[in-house]
Amino acid sequence: MPSSPTVRVSLIFLAIALVGLLFADIAVTTSNPWRDLGNFLFGIATPNFFSTEGLMTALLRTVAFAFVGVALGSVAGFLMALAYRSLPVRIFCAFIRAIHELFWALIFLQFFGFHPLTGVLAIAIPYAGIFAKVYSEILEEADPESGRVLPPGTGNISAFLYARIPDCWAKMRTYTAYRLECGLRSSAILGFVGLPTLGFYLEASFSQGLYSDAGAMLILFYVLIATMPLWVRPKLLPVYVLGAPFFLGEGLPIVWGNVQRFFTEDIVPAPLRNGEGLTGLTPWLSDLMINEAMPGIWNTLVLTQIALVATGILSLLAFPLISNHFGGPIRRNAGHVVLVIARSTPEYILAYILLQLWGPSMLPAVVALALHNGGIIGHLIGRQTNAIKLRADAAEGFNRYSWELVPRVYRSFLAFLFYRWEIIMRETAILGILGIYTLGFYVDSAIQNIRFDRAMVLILITALLNIGIDTLGRYIRRKLALQTMPTC
Amino acid sequence: MATPVIWKLMLSCFFCFTAAAASAETLVFTAIPDEDETKLVERFRGVADYLSEQLNVDVRYIPVKSYAAAVSAFRNNQVQLAWFGGLSGVQARRLVPGSEAIAQGVEDEAFETYFIANTNTGIEPAAELSALKDQLQGKTFTFGSKGSTSGRLMPEFYVRDTFNAKPDDFFSRVGFSGNHTRTLRLVEAGTYDVGALNFQVWEKELADGNINTDAVQVIWKTPHYPDYQWTIRGDVDERFGDGFKQRVTEALLNLDNPELLESFPRSGFIPAANADYEPIRKTAQEIGILD
């Protein structure tokens, strides 16, 4: 066994993934995947921007939901960050962020229906949990010196506002802006479950094989994200945040009785609802565990581990694309475009596209997760290598890559990878909605059969699994003394 | 700090929304997303215009992304009328006491599911499903939507009944394509060897020349069962005035615009009752997708 702990951990994870491959369902089941892929790429090359009258509205709604959701999430997250030392708050935050936006949307759809609140809360709630964690970390790290020089008798609030906030402001702003980009992605995919954002039309075009229409939507989405630095200006932000609620669309009115019914009837386990009492609960629960939860957990874990290692390999292969240490500016710019596209496309959309092209198996999911997450980590690592100064006589080409750069960035690479472990698992679970047999598949099936009691138990299991992975990831990062900054 | 102000403003915005949206008195209806969305939107906008003209109220169609979303919207009173399949109708009427099946297509009294196969599999049509056992075993198979009657419930029932096995165990891979058009396309393209779909979708696509009959063919037809129907909530009379349910029913039964009927495709609508769907409920209970 190699003595370096980072290498040892890497090899252990590689081994787990290889064993997972033996059990995983990896296959291309379409008879002509390359023709379909060709049709799709041809569609992107010949975009049709005038397919749907609603396209521009959908784009506007995508932005509006993102702004309102992220704004609400950041305010709530900030308030919770102030109380983050309390264990119940920490547990609460871990719990709400362990449930994916799409699951939240599926839950709210059941009682708010197609009201804008469904989409807004689906983004705001998990984001609040993430904001609370990251803001509290930023506040923790603030230099305490400025607080010590305040005159005695300064109130807590004044001390906080004048000594702590100024030190953290820049970091919090950067992170919030970054989350806004994530918010746009989340907002777009909410369309897949019926909210009026981009995903709604994207799903419709894809499922009908209208690749030129879908291509146009994807291009508009990339342009929207790539031009964010131009249109998201600090001075314009208040205008956006105040204006956004007016562009969410009307949706359909909320019937408040539904909310009560959902919590007092729908999610009560069927045996209790039908008065069978606790004796009926045991067979109900064991049926659920054996036939749905267990296979779901197993597939989710297998897929997560394979996708994690695939992400790692892809990140290591991708970072030279944007690194100063290789190639000229033209190639680097091309590399930037490739990585921007890879990381701006939500995994869910990538997986959806690949599933259409290759047919259902874990393969499209692995590739989608690896492309998206590998794009993000590759970008971060690549940027890091640009700060490295090599000796003038350092090795060139492959030797430079393997002996000079990779060893220097390997620790932060692992840090990012383990940070994203939990994120990859959350996505893996949700990809089940697309037909891969992870937990999301069983959640979706329960909802399709109008069995919200089962759906809620399965969502709860998903959340606990996620919290477990998050804790394990943090433990490993601490053991290996890996430092990281948050990514989404 | 500006944050509390922003918070309040945003909250007030939400309340404005809720208030504005609640005042509209519009009949909203939906339909299960069983086919290509473009076709559905076109068809049901036509129906909305027709109903609006007949009933003198604003009528609006909203497209949804899943069968369950259609049922939930109906249950939550966000839509008052819906074009359901057999199973989704049973689910919806169980959840909304007082709701009624008011009209069905002429063809829906005796609906069928077609099992189709890619011709590369070499599976030949048969009169009995049991005759296909050896040829079907171990093939890949796709249903339509998880909540579909013709695309999931009935084919699953016949697979279980005939082969005495769960579809997962009998076939090597089981998928849910999402809707009937996609089932057709996926089997035609060979993504799945075999699939099951709504016979009307097959017949219409065939008549329109949209099927490559060299690539895909029908291998078995199920016995008849009741399927699609219009279902309306019991409380519409209170909301839209006495006799409203009756007027909607009559409007649907009198629908004779050939283009509109062709888009379903149905030759006309006839009266329906909740009891007509009793066989569907029993089947759903039998295979465990209804409690």
Main interface: chain pair and counts: A-B, 53 and 57 residues
* Portion in beta strands of chain B: 15-25%
Radius of gyration of chain A: 23 Å
Strand content of chain A is under 5%
CATH C-level class of the largest domain in chain B is: Alpha Beta
Counted beta strands of chain A: 0
Low-pLDDT runs of 5+ residues of chain A are: none
What does this structure look like?
- The complex is a heterodimer of chains A (488) and B (291).
- In chain A, helix 4 packs across helix 6 (116-141) and helix 15 (277-318) packs across helix 18.
- Chain A is mostly helical and 488 residues long.
- Chain A has two domains: 1-31 and 278-488, MetI-like (MetI-like fold), CATH 1.10.3720; 49-266, Orthogonal Bundle (MetI-like fold).
- In chain A, 75% of the residues lie in helices and 0% in strands.
- The two termini of chain A are 34 Å apart.
- Chain A is globular.
- Chain B is of the alpha/beta class and 291 residues long.
- Chain B folds into two domains: 25-109 and 226-286, Periplasmic binding protein-like II (D-Maltodextrin-Binding Protein, domain 2, 3-Layer(aba) Sandwich), CATH 3.40.190; 112-221, 3-Layer(aba) Sandwich (D-Maltodextrin-Binding Protein, domain 2), CATH 3.40.190.
- Chain B has a six-stranded mixed β-sheet with strand order 2-1-3-10-4-11, sandwiched between helices. A five-stranded mixed β-sheet of chain B has the order 7-6-8-5-9.
- In chain B, strand 1 (27-31), helix 2 (37-55) and strand 2 (59-61) form a beta-alpha-beta unit.
- Chain B is globular, with a radius of gyration of 21 Å.
- The relative contact order of chain B is 0.18.
- Chains A and B meet through helix 3, helix 5, helix 6, helix 9 and helix 12 of A and helix 1, helix 3, strand 7 and helix 8 of B.
